[in-house]
Amino acid sequence: MCLLPFTPVWSLRKDIPTLRSNIAKNLSRVDDLTLEMVIATLAQHHFHKWMPDFSSTPRTMYNIVHQAIAIETFRYATAHHAYSFMGPISLEHANNSQLLIELYDNYFWSYWREKFELETRRPGANGSKTEYTNASKRRSAVCDFFFRYFFLFLP
């Protein structure tokens, strides 16, 4: 799923059911106006897709612009209660620039950079890791079902 400039929200919503990530599921809960604002903001800054450069440092101009866009759109969405499905978000925290910068850096430059480096070292590694995790979750669900059925429902 790529956020091309002026991509209609209905086009994004059409793709969401085919995606199995938690991010896609949560994206489906965000209202159309907020998604349109994010797409317009990316287009305004001439970004055809969201793609920080993990092969360089977090403080390059290109990556700083990504950070600024993320924080700007997060503040807008928070002020308009776009994330209310996740629970209450303190507007005081949402307006704390230093906190948002630290959260962004931690999330993108720790979590996503680790995924980038793993994929760089072993192409396809993240996909196989996700498949393994999903298979493990399905096995656990089946075991849980059988446990409840055999030990709780049978006399």
Itemize the secondary structure elements and their pairings:
Blueprint: H1 9-15, H2 22-27, H3 32-44, H4 61-79, H5 91-94, H6 97-121, H7 125-153
Structure, described:
The chain is mainly α. The chain folds into 2 domains: 9-121, no CATH class; 123-155. The chain is built from 7 helices and no strands. It has helices at residues 9-15, 22-27, 32-44, 61-79, 91-94, 97-121, 125-153. The protein is globular.
Quick structural overview:
The protein has two domains: 9-121, no CATH class; 123-155.
Strand element count = 0
Helix content: 55-70%
Taken as a percent bin, the fraction of beta residues is under 5%
Low-confidence stretches: 1-5
Largest sheet: none
Q: Which radius of gyration do the C-alpha atoms yield?
A: 19 Å
Strand pairing plus helix content: what structural class? Answer: mainly alpha
How confident is the prediction overall: mean pLDDT?
80
3D shape: globular
Key phrases:
155 residues; mainly alpha; 2 domains; 7 helices; 0% strand; globular; disordered N terminus
